[in-house]
Write a structure and sequence with these properties.
alpha+beta, Beta-Lactamase, 3 domains, three-stranded antiparallel beta sheet
Length: about 625
């Protein structure tokens, strides 16, 4: 076993193993790990998403009318766009909401006016299930309590005879569309042939393994790689597991595939062809239908065309058939590659539903320039660099890269000092509760392994081979009862998780030798994102109160090889206002500066320099925060 690359890696093996059995929590350094009977910091069982669902339901039941109650449920009390939830509904529920309150994601020109005070012909229900979806009892269904996993009770909704008639007409139209699209998907899959379908299933299985958690629907069926509800290969189901909806289809004749499975395979294929595996997350929490895919692709087409400058516009799909949408998906993938170098793409993330929306950033404005100027002022005071912009500072560094290998500011290397001072400045300038940046401890070890093509060795490296420097604001202890010790423990917990992210992404840049293919990893991220209300599902996010964030991943060049997602800069706010686009644009320039320094350091190491990151372990976080 390769011992972790840490400051004490030169210890004898027995001493190193003894230290490995000690707690790494800053407030428990030197004590045996796992010796406490219960966690030091308990989190309420209903904290995060369960608490939000309860709050949402309480607001809905207190709403003055049905329309307001429905809007509260659709937006989860203002935490997500209603459009996402509207596209999560199966046909019957979608149609019922259109008839009862006039809410629909479609723009088809059909409206329904209800007659108040009309006699009740059917008493329906509306509820909220524990996945966050609004659920409706329609005339063909029994009470919601018998089928749905409800957050609480139900809202009783009277239907008039007119409502029932409108519902019948609307549902027939929607059902016709749905059945026609399923038939089209079956024909497309049939034309692909058995070998083509197996290839599609293999690619989508790989997508499920290499993509962050997602939850999708096709009719009443749920497809997810998330936690213990897995119906797709992911953290719970191994590749080829019989419970995986994709793996189970490999040897089944197409005629025996369910309509839901047909939609799953075709819609995911279209999404992946338009932008790679990450596009799947832009459908998170919604129904897999050709109409929904068409909406997503059309929104993307409109955004790309607006950002394409002199390039000819990507034409719209002439219909919602699989063939036309496939052509649009491939055209969008090509256009995306063409504009990536000239515009900044990013994603908005809505934490309660893990839903992502790709955006094209506008121009850098005064707010972003001001943030950059303030950060540069901090760095000029603390680093031996000059310049008014981050590009100027990077140019100075490129002219004198040896600074990165020399001790500076109490650190063993200038690289460590630069990482720390940049993160520290970002915490202050962006008014963040925490800022952080991650990377690899031993560039010499990475370069040596790359030169000898020891990819299996890299795959075997463990989380302590990586680092993350976390710097909280001086006021952040208010979030944790005023305790500096708890703030240090929380910072280290964040650091450990970010080290895991580096471990999780690194090997995704390497040749797919068997050891790499077998190693758990995600496709490395390449564009930044802004997240809203991330303190919902991830237990660590709930405990650390990770509410609003900016994440800016960057590539680093090592021996001429591009390592996407090698490092990032993250900004975190636990309360207050979310970050905005100008914050993201400024932060992305900051992370590019650190990435440039890391690439320069790698070049120095390739030439014989010895640059090791020995700071930013649990002891460092204790000394810098609590001591």
């Amino acid at each position: 076993m390769t011992l972790p690359t840490e400051p004490d890696r030169t210890l004898p093996r027995r001493a190193a193993l003894a230290k490995a059995r000690q707690s790494r929590r800053p407030s428990r350094l030197g004590r045996p790990a796992g010796a406490t009977r219960e966690p030091d910091y308990l989190t309420a069982k209903d904290a995060g998403f369960p608490e939000l669902l309860q709050q949402t339901w309480q607001r809905a039941t207190a709403a003055p009318d049905l329309a307001t109650a429905v809007d509260t449920l659709l937006t989860l009390a203002g935490h997500v766009p209603a459009d996402i939830q509207l596209r999560a509904l199966p046909l019957e529920d979608e149609t019922a909401l259109k008839v009862l309150v006039g809410r629909s994601w479609r723009d088809d020109g059909r409206t329904t006016d209800r007659t108040d005070g009309a006699p009740t012909a059917f008493l329906g229900e509306i509820g909220l299930d524990r996945s966050g979806r609004l659920v409706v009892r329609v005339p063909s269904k029994g009470p919601l309590s018998g089928d749905a996993d409800l957050v609480d009770g139900v809202l009783r909704v009277p239907w008039s005879a007119e409502d029932l008639a409108d519902y019948q007409v609307e549902l027939a139209l929607a059902a016709d569309r749905w059945h026609a699209s399923v038939a089209d998907c079956r024909q497309w899959l049939m034309a692909a042939g058995a070998d083509g379908r197996r290839e599609l299933l293999g690619d989508l299985t790989e997508a499920a393994i290499r993509t962050a958690p997602f939850i999708l629907y096709a009719g009443e069926r749920q497809y997810t790689n998330f936690r213990d509800r897995n119906t797709l290969t992911g953290k719970t189901l191994r590749p080829g597991h019989p419970d995986c909806a994709l793996s189970s289809l490999a040897a089944v004749p197409l005629e025996l595939w369910s309509d839901s499975d047909v939609l799953l395979v075709v819609c995911l294929t279209l999404l992946v062809r338009s932008a790679g595996y990450a596009r799947i997350e832009e459908a998170n929490g919604t129904q897999l239908t050709l109409d929904h895919v068409a909406l997503l692709l059309e929104r993307t087409r409109t955004a790309y065309n607006a950002a394409s400058g002199a390039l000819p516009p990507v034409p719209a799909a002439t219909s919602h058939t699989v063939a036309d949408l496939d052509g649009l998906a491939r055209a969008l993938a090509g256009r995306r590659r063409e504009i990536m170098g000239s515009v900044q793409l990013y994603r908005e993330i809505y934490g309660p539903l893990m839903h992502k929306i790709e955006r094209v950033a506008g121009p850098v404005k005064d707010d972003a320039r001001r943030l950059e100027a303030e950060l540069c002022a901090h760095l000029r005071e603390r680093l031996p660099l000059t310049g008014d912009t981050l590009a100027d500072l990077a140019a100075h560094l490129e002219a004198s890269p040896g600074l990165l290998a020399e001790p500076h500011g109490g650190f063993g290397t200038g690289l460590e000092s630069l990482v720390y001072e940049t993160v520290r400045a970002a915490t202050a300038v962006f008014d963040a509760d925490f800022a952080m940046s991650r990377g690899m401890r031993s560039l010499p070890a990475l370069i040596e392994a790359l030169r000898s093509q020891e990819y299996a060795e890299i795959a075997g490296w463990e989380i302590p081979h990586f680092f993350c420097c976390v710097v909280p604001s001086p006021e952040a202890r208010r979030l944790f009862g005023g305790s500096a010790a708890r703030l240090a423990d929380t910072s280290w917990a964040i650091s450990s998780r970010m080290q895991y992210n580096s471990w999780h992404f690194l090997v995704g840049n390497l040749p797919k030798v068997p050891e790499i293919a077998a190693r758990d990893h995600f496709v490395p991220p390449v564009i930044p994102d802004i997240a809203y209300y991330s303190d919902q599902h991830h237990n660590g996010h709930v405990a650390a109160r990770v509410r609003f964030t900016v994440r800016s991943p960057q590539a680093v060049e090592v021996l001429g090889r591009r390592f996407n997602g090698f490092m990032d800069l993250r900004l975190l706010r636990c309360e207050g206002l979310p970050f905005d686009e100008q914050d993201l644009l400024a932060a992305h320039r900051v992370s590019a500066f650190v990435a440039k320094a890391t690439s320069l350091a790698a070049a120095l190491v390739a030439g014989g320099a010895r640059i090791e990151v020995t700071s930013f372990d649990s002891r460092w976080h204790w000394d810098s925060i609590a001591a």
